[in-house]
Specification:
The radius of gyration is 33 Å and the shape is elongated. The protein has 3 domains: 53 residues; 42 residues; 196 residues, Ribonuclease H-like superfamily/Ribonuclease H (Nucleotidyltransferase, domain 5), CATH 3.30.420. A 5-stranded mixed beta sheet has the order 7-6-3-8-9, sandwiched between helices. It has 345 residues and is of the alpha/beta class. One of its GO terms (molecular function) is nucleic acid binding.
Length: 345
């Protein structure tokens, strides 16, 4: 029940004039405000709270203990701007605390006055000068060698954690425009659990695997069922992919049409930004973890379900962008493709 200031003041006044009797307050309250016999009156807890507030603050209304609202004056706007420019990676709450203004005023200044937005950091593979040259060479070779109508199955693996994926929500950069800031980190090790092969005609997979068994017992039979004729096959340079036994098997299956480290057309290391599978894993993980699987069986079932629902037009668009990415990689000197990383195309 929300009581008015008049009702609270009457209850406090009656409490002191009736020898601190709560029952007397309730009876007088019912009579004065003409409340029906079964109508609500203040309980003892409410009366005690109003009396305590009056004794300590001189008011029957509890005053807010929080910081008062800060007016977004020009000096505050300038102070926020200078603070953000000095430390753009600090959170808005930390800036507000340091400047002694409310969080709400901080957000209002950032958005309405400075027109700043928070941008996520993007973690990418660190590239050496040798990597840059390799990426350019491979892009040029693919553009010269790969026929325009070639049907390519791009393959890759990804590790799906039951607990979800890495949360980068707190990796922000406050600025008036996107600084397109990359946070480069070395790649230590790959943890592989799920394999898929993507092409413009469909996806083969997912497969939870050992690589050799997957190629012989899953990928080859699935490919034969599709009756596609000659196809190209792409894989990255993971050790399981380029082992002697794996390469022997793949060369026999794709004679002259193997895109891989030590294949017919090389594939540069540290280049996940140039394969359509990068689109697949980003999209698939976002969809899979919306289901919040609680065990490995549920996780695998959800992966199967979401892969089956991917539309062919999405695959066609992903492969259609592949040659565009090759051209962009050669034009920017082999560096990471920021238009892809920041999703501006």
């Amino acid at each position: 029940m929300r009581w008015t200031s008049e009702q609270r003041a009457f209850a406090v006044k009656t409490y002191f004039s009736n020898n601190h009797s709560y029952v007397a307050v309730q009876r007088a309250f019912r009579t004065h405000f003409r409340i029906k016999p079964r109508g609500l009156v203040p309980d003892q807890k409410s009366i005690v709270l109003w009396v305590e507030n009056f004794s300590t603050t001189g008011s029957v209304v509890k005053k807010s203990s929080g910081r008062q609202r800060t007016i977004t004056m020009q000096e505050n706007v300038e102070a926020v701007q200078q603070s953000i420019l000095r430390s753009p990676r600090c959170s808005a709450c930390k800036h507000a605390f340091a400047l002694d203004i409310s969080n709400r005023s901080m957000c209002r200044i950032l958005h309405e006055h400075l027109h700043f937005h928070s941008y996520k950091m993007v973690v990418v593979q660190e590239l050496s000068p040798h990597d840059l040259q390799n990426r350019i060479m491979v892009c040029e070779t693919l553009l010269e060698t790969l026929p325009p109508d070639a049907l390519v199955f791009f393959s890759d693996e990804a590790h799906f954690h039951l607990s979800g994926y890495v949360n980068k929500q707190n990796m922000r950069y406050w600025s008036g425009n996107n600084p397109r800031d990359l946070h480069e980190r070395p790649l230590h090790s790959d943890k592989v659990t799920v394999w898929c092969a993507l092409s413009r005609v469909g996806i083969i997979g997912p497969y939870f695997f050992r690589y050799m068994d997957m190629i012989k017992n899953f990928f080859e039979p699935a490919l034969e069922e599709m009756h596609l004729g000659n196809v190209w096959f792409q894989q990255d340079g993971a050790t399981a992919h380029t082992a002697r036994a794996s390469m022997t098997l793949l060369r026999a299956k794709f004679p002259g049409w193997l895109i891989s480290l030590r294949g017919d057309i090389p594939w540069a290391a540290h280049s996940p930004d140039r394969t359509p599978c990068d689109f697949l894993w980003g999209y698939l993980k976002a969809e899979v973890f919306e289901h919040h699987p609680t065990n490995l069986i549920q996780l695998k079932n959800v992966i199967w379900q979401e892969v089956a629902q991917i539309l062919v037009r999405m695959l066609e668009r992903a492969e259609g962008n592949f040659r565009k990415w090759l051209h962009q990689c050669t034009e920017n000197g082999g560096h990471n493709l920021q238009d892809i990383l920041f999703k501006t195309i």
